[in-house]
Sequence to fold (661 residues):
Amino acid sequence: MTHAQLTALLPVILLAGTAVALLLVQAITRSHRVTAGVTLAGLAAALVAVTRALPQGATPVTALLTIDRFALLYTGLLALIGIGLTLLSFLYLAGRTRLTGAYYILFTLALAGGAVLASSAHFAAFFLGLEMISVSLFALAAYRRDDPAGIEAGMKYLVLAGVATAVLLFGAALLYARYGTMAFAALGTAIAPGAGDPLTLAGIALVVAGIGFKLTLAPFHLWAPDVYEGAPAPVTGFIATISKAAVFALLLRLFTQVHLREHPALFAIFATLAIASIFAGNLLGLRQMNLKRVLAYSSVANMGYLLIAFLAGGPAGAIAATFYLTAYLPALLGIFTLLTALSGRERDADAIADYAGLAWRRPVLAAAFTVLLLSLAGIPLTGGFIGKFYVALTGVSAALAGSPAFWALVGALVVGSVIGLYYYLRIVLAFFQRTPAGEEPAAITRRVPDAAAIVLTLSTLAVLWLGVLPGNTLTLISLLVEEWFR
Amino acid sequence: MTIVFYLSAAVAVIATVLVITRLNAVHALLHLIVSLLAIAVIFFTLGAPFVAALEVIIYAGAIMVLFVFVIMMLNLGPHAAEAERRWLDPAIWVGPGILALILAGEVGYLILRGAAGTTGAAIVGPQTVGVSLFTTYMLGVELASLVLLAGLVGAYHLGRRRGAGEDGEGERTNG
Fold:
């Protein structure tokens, strides 16, 4: 392994090394502070390693991983969100359980799996990265063993993720049977653009189904609401942010190298998935009374929007999708921070009714929460708006460039956003409910710990900054993504 | 030669269906072992005798024995002896026995024919597997170890005995 390869791989090595270091730390001390501190230090080191690896171009590290700027960009994003989630996990676990060691080990392993996914160039790495995430997450979802809902969530995730992985493996096996390789680049050259033989199409379709499960695209979204609701708030945050961003990075990379999304059959599959996700997410979210379930359906819809940018393809599509995710992740992180900070020990503050009167009692929190929700809804002055704008822009230019099917996709985006607005605003409306003094929900009276306040402030500012001054970030993203298309 | 493949594939499918439909865990396990053996035979016909051996040793051997042990231990008690006598009822082992016999016949046939690789693909021996594991797929081996680590830590946490004051009375922090 050369020096360049080691530098490129260092973020992944550091993340995996943190997990191993945490194991050793457990032998010395079980202190929660020390464990969380080591995790934070490991993530910060990985973040530094990402910046050190950025100047060198795409570096293949064995046949399995190709670490290019795109992979590093996503790894950096994951590590940043991971730092926020570690702080949340610390707040959440403190006072709820004494068994904290395993949590951080699984957390870092899942994060390392995300980094592997973002840089994988081979189905073997894809599978291993996905399994690192799934195996860690089902244990994390069931981490509070006294909570039946958590156990149920873990169980559902275990079974359904297992099925999804099996489907994915079958697809990869079909592709291997047809082309004799599992490397993305080799597949990309072997599969002629528009190749339409059944084995190739079936293989790719099965792979897409496996990915669709992880991204909670309709109709593979059925697990999402239950798992989101049952898992502890920081773990739900992990599932909603890191695991999705990593899998989406992989989807982008796979289909940038394998030119099949233009194939009529696959295009139809993706377009159907996108439209179904947008409508299923937005319509099913309307009547939910539980904030976590609303977020689950909102993520279904948001993944549908992302798929439009993905389908448009080319540099513009990749940039739009990446920017969308960059704006989407901090908004979710902020919401989960609030959820964690205001949760009681018995149950998470995940009912919309828990936030009744928040605006009168805690105006600053309510303002931040509103900004984050509006960003998810895509209202101007927030990052979510710019993201959605760019997605619509790529969709429209693809439609003008001669594929009228994109009009339907963009139409679904517009209609879906309007429907979605209803349930985001319903939460905001709850903030302004008048509750008689002394009868307000317990959640809104809780003190927000300093760490949560910092994460909340930073993510809200990030969302606003991306909404008001998106230029720098867009330039940065296009610099990092364009490496693929040169 | 193709017939060997189809026969073991059929055995694998039948055995796997029986795994799912049996209500008694031990019966299901017997069928699962047969299913794994059938897949081992398929590997053998595909020219991968080393992988076939691994499949038998690791899956049908070690993991299944562990599995059976756990189930037996869970069943300890006055009913255990009675239950074990019932498991030895011919009606239970005849089915898997016939399926296993088919597989044994296939292996015997293959050995008598004296050729391991049969479907035209090159024979992949232990050396080739070892070399690719420690060069091309070295990183994959490392990543697989991380997957196992996650599984281990997760199982340890979920399976550990519930201690007093585990939940709630944790180290108080107000960070």
